[in-house]
Design goal:
By secondary structure, the chain is mainly alpha-helical. It is built from 13 helices and 9 strands. The strands form 4 sheets. The chain has a 3-stranded antiparallel sheet with strand order 3-2-4. Strands 1-7 form a two-stranded parallel ribbon. Strands 5-6 form a two-stranded antiparallel sheet.
Length: 369
């Protein structure tokens, strides 16, 4: 029904008449609802994705993500967002604010995910919301893949490069972290959950602070220099860092393939390529230990390890920035999140032809424009 209403409004305008709703149109109110409602969509997207991978890691959901409950929530919020924006905007309002009626204008069709979005219509308000939502989902899913390193391939539906049907290219993914469920105990479990929770909350808080500032008419540069915005961003950064340090501690190092010992009885062990090979063969996985030349489990020594990226996937070229400590991991989350937020916001603040809020290309092309 909403789509029909906007189609009729366009038809009346084309005939040389102006509908009463268009005379009363509040473009500022329209833009506010676009930014506000799309932020809700972003928030629910990352929330349901995070929860699903947490359940999968905890072995309480077999996968793949999204789970039916999460998908239902996402579908519901998409409908609500379209309704709210539809009540506040007309196609004429969106055009006056600088939004294009071609979905291909919001990104490149050079990637599989981008091609799917570029092919969508964007002439009505409903179509516009679906179009922008598609581009945002591809950016958000890429961020989810970075945060949930042990499920990155699943998050991007089988591919981490330009051929992924749901993610923008992740960047340097070599060496690829072990793709597995992390289980219910050990170093990985609480640390990964903390990274997911803190990283996704940080993205939402940063997008909210900068999006609210952008609605005032300020440019991206003005907003980043604003004292109030800086205070909000600093608080979001502190919160994120504290959660990750609390969950990961100061003695855990990110490693794509943490060592383990496959114990077969007493302290004896056998070589096993994967943890699954160990358990299916009747062994017991011992984390932070290795099977030495005498076939006995020995402690690794030094810091413990957890499964994550060994180099930050914020760059298309390899090797990326080496990640050796929890602080390195936090810096990596920052660098990826900040670019993703910029790309989310430039989609919804097209003022002055995009000059006020330009869409960034990622370092060395990790995102394809």
């Amino acid at each position: 029904m909403t789509t029909i209403r906007f189609a009729l409004a366009l038809a009346v305008s084309a005939a040389g008449l102006v509908a009463p709703a268009q005379l009363r149109a509040d473009q500022a109110g329209c833009h506010k609802q676009v930014v506000k409602q799309l932020l809700k969509l972003e928030k629910i997207h990352v929330k349901v994705a995070s929860k699903c991978f947490d359940l999968e890691n905890a072995l309480t959901y077999p996968g793949p993500c999204l789970d039916p409950t999460g998908q239902a929530k996402l579908d519901t919020i998409r409908t609500k967002v379209a309704f709210k924006v539809g009540n506040a905007c007309t196609p004429a309002d969106l055009a006056a604010l600088g939004f294009s009626t071609s979905c291909a204008d919001y990104g490149s069709a050079a990637t599989s995910a981008g091609a799917a979005c570029a092919a969508l219509p964007a002439g009505t308000v409903d179509e516009f919301v679906e179009c922008i939502g598609c581009w945002k989902a591809a950016e958000l899913q890429r961020y989810v893949a970075v945060l949930y390193a042990s499920h990155a391939v699943e998050a991007c539906d089988g591919s981490l490069d330009a051929t992924s049907p749901v993610c923008q290219p992740v960047g340097c993914t070599t060496p690829l972290p072990d793709q597995r469920n992390l289980g219910t105990s050990g170093n990985d479990t609480s640390c990964q959950k903390g990274i997911g929770k803190a990283g996704l909350k940080y993205l939402v808080l940063r997008a909210k602070a900068l999006g609210s500032c952008g609605l005032t008419g300020a440019t991206r540069a003005d907003c980043l220099a604003d004292a109030t915005v800086q205070q909000k961003l600093a608080a979001a950064e502190t919160r994120k860092s504290n959660v990750i340090r609390n969950k990961c501690g100061g003695n855990l190092d990110p490693v794509p393939s943490p060592v383990f010992c496959c114990r077969t009885g007493g302290n004896t062990c056998v070589a096993a390529a994967t943890r699954e090979d160990c358990t299916t063969g009747g062994g017991e996985v011992q984390e932070d230990k290795f099977c030495d030349v005498d076939s006995t489990c020995q402690s690794l020594g030094g810091n413990k390890q957890f499964t994550w990226w060994g180099s930050c996937p914020d760059d298309a070229s390899c090797p990326g920035t080496s990640l050796d400590t929890t602080d390195d991991l936090i810096a990596c989350v920052d660098s990826v999140a900040d670019v993703v937020v910029d790309r989310l916001l430039c989609l919804q603040i097209p003022r002055n032809g995009g000059a006020d809020w330009p869409c960034p290309s990622s370092p060395s092309g990790a995102f394809v424009d």
